[in-house]
Amino acid sequence: MKFRVLAFLLVLFQGLWAQSSLLWEVSGNGLSHKSYIFGTIHLIPASDYFFPKTWQKKLYESDVVVFESDIKPSIQEQLAIVDKVMFPSGQTLRDYVPAGYYDSLYVFLKDTLGLKKKTISKIMKIKPAYASALVLKKVIDKKLMTYETEIYKMAKKKKKKFYYLETLEYQTSLIDSIPIYEQARNFLYNPENGEDLLTGYYAMVSIYKTNNIDSVSQYVYASSDSLFLNKFIRVRNENWLPQLERLFKEQSTFVAVGSGHLGGKYGILTLLKSRGYKLRPVSF
What we know:
Blueprint: H1 2-12, E1 23-27, E2 35-40, E3 44-45, H2 53-61, E4 64-67, H3 75-85, H4 99-112, H5 117-123, H6 128-139, E5 144-145, H7 147-157, E6 161-164, H8 168-176, H9 180-187, E7 189-190, E8 195-196, H10 197-208, H11 213-222, H12 226-250, E9 253-258, H13 268-274, E10 278-281
Parallel strand pairs: 2-9, 4-6, 4-9
Antiparallel strand pairs: 1-2, 1-10, 3-5, 7-8
Helix pairs in contact: 1-10, 1-11, 3-8, 6-9
């Protein structure tokens, strides 16, 4: 219920926030090139995907395209990730959570989401944070797209250079630092308050489509605890900042990272502004 109410209020009153966008131009502070920061959503129904020509132009004008991590990892890297995504052989989620929770989650996946027993069996062998993407793909009866993949394809055609802010190994270590039971309740289903990944996902998509980074950040900060905000937003943004500043000074740069990283008190935009850069929202 919290996800639904919060999403409704943010969409309804989006006009109360200052002019905003998912794409921002970075200039000033001695820069000789304009750079851009775009907030993505990692999965979105194809019918809701949008990336207007004015934004494509900014992408094509840039020399290098930056992502959080390599979206085209090598076979060796993919195999290493699989080992971290799956529970050890012979183990499932049942071995890591209270029996009562496991049963309630199973009922939710089967009766509420309508997943088949064979699919649920596969899901239970995957750590919850990673299993959430599989659940969404199985439940949402629409083609799903990722902004990172689409931006990569557009940039690849124009022979752009690529840069990655962190390794996949580092990202998986962040996920692994969250206890499995906490992962399950945060990323799949929490019977204590009735919140689940599908409700949260649809809320985020509806807010994302407003093209208002202020609304996105309001939602992310209101629906996340302080531990998540510190570990997954603040610390990573602070680690990215010196890399981004170096890239901005060297060449025109197009940065595409999760939209939750842009706004708010820990956001990249806030950090850049505090360092003396000029920030301007790029409209359609």
